[in-house]
Amino acid sequence: MNSIALQAGFKDAVTDAQQVFRSLLKVMSEPGVIEQLDQSGALETLCPAAFSTCLALLDSTTRIWLAESFNSDSVSKNLSFHTGCHLTRDLSEADFVLCRADQLPALDQLKLGSAEYPDRGCTLLVQVAQLSDMALPGATQLTLQGPGIPDQRSLSVVSLPTTLISYLTARPDPFPLGLDIVLLADNVATAIPRTTRVEVN
Amino acid sequence: MNPQTIREGYNFAYLDEQTKRMIRRALLKAVAIPGYQVPFGGREMPMPYGWGTGGMQVTAAVIGQNDCLKVIDQGADDTTNAVSIRAFFRDLTGVKTTERTEEATLIQTRHRIPEKPLQAGQVLVYQVPIPEPLRFIEPSEVETRKMHALEDYGVMHIKLYEDIAQFGHIATAYAYPVLVNGRYVMDPSPIPKFDNPKMDNSPALQLFGAGREKRIYAIPPYTDVKSLDFEDHPFEVQTWKQCCAICGSTESFLDEVIMDDQGAHEFICSDTDYCRERMASQEMPV
């Protein structure tokens, strides 16, 4: 029998899901703030923060698109087993897109929702190498402004892809449309929702 | 948290995990689009619509074991609605509860914002009866959606202008419409307009739940919230000639209380925690 090892998810499904959500709510409402997210372990190449986010947000009513490097049997079986989510290969119908920084899909193909229902847009989960509020060597230094940020906040991201940087600085989709982006690195996370104005230093 | 007091046979905070996830996803979109109303699959709660079922569902999706919960109804911690909802979550989660604004991490409110300024890290959950500020002007949801999409808010200004034409001033005293982050006109729930300025650039996260109408919306911390007005009729809050009959405050929102059948009446603070604390500090021996 071709068996794939199932991996443990949350230790305490109810409490861990709540804590992951509270961290995500914190970073989404205060863009650039970095929160610890390690309620689960890593799943193959998915970092703990990425796996925890999947476990907390996905279920049978959500569709997720996985980038090449994450789209292994082990990851898809484990995600299906723990969350019951639908894996899709059609970018335009994915509620969540999970990718590594170097395998970003074409951003203009992601679901955007409509002006009447901008909440139906996709949430982009990007696993990057490193995140910090201090300047990291070799990192992209971002200055964020907008709702959730008193004055401005700096964020340092290692391995932020150039397509994402140009998306964030250009914001081709007029508000209220836009992508809400969660950045995940090892066991921490931050977010850059569509309202955040981004400058590269 | 005290596991001994948790009522058996229910999931933590009453709602099942699938429902919580659905509400949580809606909340994440709500904070990403400040002031926009996200539809959600509102569930039946063990109490009637109009008693705060929307606020309770939001609270149930957000609350965790480390939270300290405060519930107020028109500013008061000790009225039926507040006591019942506080007891509900105490029994179904075992979390700490408090009446002190500064101790709470999570505050569910019906129609008031506490007098004491909220702090960073606190979450304020509003119970909302009618989430759509344009609903009394335009009954069709399809139309109001379109109006929000096109930022077509002229009718709202006309409504306020009609107040001025009729009464000489903007007579709207509660549920006073606000513009969030310069984009969405939002109903702040029926809080008195006295509380509107507290929403602007608040360090706390503000979440809104409407159970019957099945809508969730939010204001992230440090977000511009502007009460609609006109250059020649700027936004103003209520003032009183009287002070609180209990604590003497001249700065809080006052409720009028009828004292007898002779027409005698007094004004007292609507925020019971604020009033109690002021009394306690006055009684302290110097």
From TrEMBL, chain B:
Question: Does the record carry Magnesium as a key word?
Answer: no
Does Transmembrane appear among the keywords?
no
Q: Which residues form the signal peptide?
A: none
Source superkingdom: Bacteria
Report the catalytic activity. alpha-D-ribose 1-methylphosphonate 5-phosphate + AH2 + S-adenosyl-L-methionine = alpha-D-ribose 1,2-cyclic phosphate 5-phosphate + methane + 5'-deoxyadenosine + L-methionine + A + H(+)
Q: What is its EC number?
A: 4.7.1.1
UniProt KW keywords: 4Fe-4S, Iron, Iron-sulfur, Lyase, Metal-binding, S-adenosyl-L-methionine
Question: What is the similarity comment for this entry?
Answer: Belongs to the PhnJ family.
Function according to Swiss-Prot or TrEMBL: Catalyzes the breakage of the C-P bond in alpha-D-ribose 1-methylphosphonate 5-phosphate (PRPn) forming alpha-D-ribose.
Protein name in UniProt: Alpha-D-ribose 1-methylphosphonate 5-phosphate C-P lyase
